[in-house]
Write a structure and sequence with these properties.
The structure is a single chain. The chain is an alpha+beta fold. It has five helices and 32 strands. It has two domains: 336 residues, 7 Propeller (Methylamine Dehydrogenase, Chain H), CATH 2.130.10.10; 33 residues. Helix 4 packs across helix 5. The longest helix is centred in the last third of the chain and has 41 residues. It starts with 13 loop residues before the first strand and ends with a helix. About 7% of the residues have low confidence.
Amino acid sequence: MRRVVRQSKFRHVFGQAVKNDQCYDDIRVSRVTWDSSFCAVNPRFVAIIIEASGGGAFLVLPLHKTGRIDKSYPTVCGHTGPVLDIDWCPHNDQVIASGSEDCTVMVWQIPENGLTLSLTEPVVILEGHSKRVGIVAWHPTARNVLLSAGCDNAIIIWNVGTGEALINLDDMHSDMIYNVSWNRNGSLICTASKDKKVRVIDPRKQEIVAEKEKAHEGARPMRAIFLADGNVFTTGFSRMSERQLALWNPKNMEEPIALHEMDTSNGVLLPFYDPDTSIIYLCGKGDSSIRYFEITDESPYVHYLNTFSSKEPQRGMGYMPKRGLDVNKCEIARFFKLHERKCEPIIMTVPRKSDLFQDDLYPDTAGPEAAMEAEEWFEGKNADPILISLKHGYIPGKNRDLKVVKKNILDSKPTANKKCDLINVSKKTADTSSVQNEAKLDEILKEIKSIKDTICNQDERISKLEEQMAKIAA
């Protein structure tokens, strides 16, 4: 597999960890035994699940806030049990979803410049799972559509804008769900489960379109993700506990298109896929390396490219969307590797001599604009992602934010969403005027309190800065 010499512009991709001062230091990364990536990244923020006493919490740091993170740095801490998975909304860089052992999914709105106070009140709480929720995944093209999967073997698809569970797939999996992946336009999902099956499901018709029993024969966890061409890529273990990767065509799941054995390490392989370059990066939990492969139409279909190796094992991994990369440096991927006490960015680049924009490395990529509304998707409409050019770099500027804010239900109807939060979503029917008035009053009081808290904090900060200035001036 490694002896094949062939033409590929990605044969010389190399990875490099950033210098120490550009890492995020002194972070107590979560020790919970769960095989999720523990880290989510977008062009504004990096979010990391951390150890928290008496509940679950995660950090949200602006990308530029490198160096040592103070122990008193504010967290997102509304869950009553450990947080197991987090996912940034692809259509709003300030909205993040979290799933927890407390059986709930919460959706949070992060202030534009990051947190100044710990966030305990989510925009909406989504309750419907009877066991812990280990997977959350936003729809790639429809606004405010969120999928969650729990240890109750159920997958629920929510309209976050109304706080309602609109699709509940609770009878398709007989055993624990390891992971769920949307396809490129969000019309299908694929799942890997403890019963060793890989399933391709049409969630709106609530039917299994294709399935493969014993996709990998080993007992350890599998992963399955959709590729841009509709094929499914899986990682798992052989009967002899060797790590495997495989490529499947959902139209014929009898035999894999390709099946490769890798090594005998026991960490679960987390796949990260770039649809623009058809490269898959495999990060094993507990490994100290990232292997990457190119998927093509010619045999052996999955081509080994290279391995990035380091000394420290990884506890988790965040993967930056394409629009957050530095195109001037020919950066084609950026990972955020979690150590025991820090988060270390790793930059993957293709060496090029020219300083010009390399359009072969950066075809148009999925942008932050949703292709359709939640209601349209639930009614049966499909839409591919709206693509943007990275020729002049991607700037998450003010204009784009305003545009998203206008259209985004999470922002444009805060009262409706906070009501979901204040009056439990499941009790929405109780809409008597007295309850509404109480809720509004409660909401106003909370807002006044949070503004007062912010003012107090800013006052303290101003006085500290004034003291520092006085010292410097003296």
